[in-house]
Amino acid sequence: MNGPSLRPLAQRSRALSPDQLHAFWRNGYVVVDDILDSTTVDQLRDRYEAVCQEARTSGDFRNFAEQVSNEDEEREVMVINQVCERDLFFNGLLYDTRILDVVEDLMGPYIQLFHDFLLRKPAEHGGSVFWHQDNQAWQSMPPNNITCWIALDDADAENGALRYIAGSHRDTLGMPIDEDGRLENMDRIIAEGDQRVAPVRAGGAVFHHCLTIHGSTPNNSERMRRAHSIIFMQPGTRCGRKPPFNSRPATEGDGFDVSFGHPLLRGTAQR
User: Fold this and answer.
1) pLDDT tens per residue, range 232-253
2) Residue 193: which region, alpha, beta or left (left: phi > 0; alpha: psi -120 to 50)?
3) Edge-to-edge strands, sheet with 162-166
4) pTM over 0.70
5) What pLDDT does 244 receive?
C-alpha cells in the first residue's frame, strides 16, 4: 500500500529526545533540565518577588496549603493566578520558544494559553498540596492540557518538590468523578500507585499531563521553593467550570475565545 512514510520520532520532535517523549507518555510527566538560562531565571526571580509583594499588600492571592490539623494553620503555599495579566515579563514568557518547542512535541503545533500562576512555598513553613488531578477541577474537553512547572529554586524532596503517581494519566482516563469533583477510588489509586518525587534544578521545568495525579509535601527546609506554572491547551478546548476558577468561560461548556487572557501562542485557531 502506497502512502507517506512515518518519520522516526527523533525527526518529528523539536526539543525532546525519544526517551523523554516515551517517559512523558509512560509516566505522565517529564523533567527537562536547564530549559531557561541563568539570566532569564534571575529576571524571573526579580519580577516574581515584585508580584508577590504587590499581592501580599493587596491581599489578592490564595493559600493552597493543605490544612489537616490546627498545627498547619501557619502553613502556606501562596498562589497568584493570571500573572501574565499582572506583569509584562511573565506575559512575554508565554511566548518563549524554549518552552513552546517542548509543548509542541507533547501537544502539537496549535497552542493556546489556559492560564498561568505563581506558587511560593516559603522556607520552614511551606505547606503541603494534596494529591489531585488538575482536570478534576478544570473539566477540560478534550483532556489534553499540559502544565509547565518552572523551578526558580532547586526543588527536591526536602523543600517540597512535586510528587507524581506515575502512569495515572492512563489509568484514570474515563473514571467517574464524585460530588466533590474528585476521582472515585482516588485514595486506593494513590495507596497502590507508583509514587515518585520529581526533583528539578532552578531553570529546569517539569511538564505534566492534566490527568496525572500529583501533589507535594511540606517545605521544612531552610530553602525557599518558588515556581511558576503555565498551562497550555489546544484551541477549541471546552471547559465545564465557571469563574472565578482561574478565568474559566462564563457559560458552562463554552470554549475559550482568543483574548489577552487566553492568547494563541503558536499556530492558528481551529474551530
Assistant:
1) 999 999 887 655 444 555 555 5
2) beta
3) 129-133, 213-216, 162-166, 194-197
4) yes
5) 45
Q: 110-127 burial by CB neighbour count: b if 16+ within 10 A, else e?
A: bbbbbbbbbbbbbeeebb
Give the separation between CA 44 and CA 105, rounded to whole angstroms: 25
Residue 183 domain-assigned? yes
Could you tell me if residue 58 is inside a domain?
Answer: yes
Pick out the chain residues at pLDDT < 50.
1, 244-246
Number of domains in the chain: 1
In contact, 112 and 262? CB cutoff 8 Å: yes
Residue 120 lies in a domain: yes
- How far apart are the C-alpha atoms of 103 and 231, rounded to whole Å? 10
Distances (CA, A) of 174 to 85, 136, 209, 234: 34, 11, 15, 19
Question: Cβ atoms within 10 A of the Cβ of 83, count?
Answer: 24
Residue 261 lies in a domain: yes
CATH classification at residue 74: 2.60.120.620
Containing structural domain, residue 226: 16-266
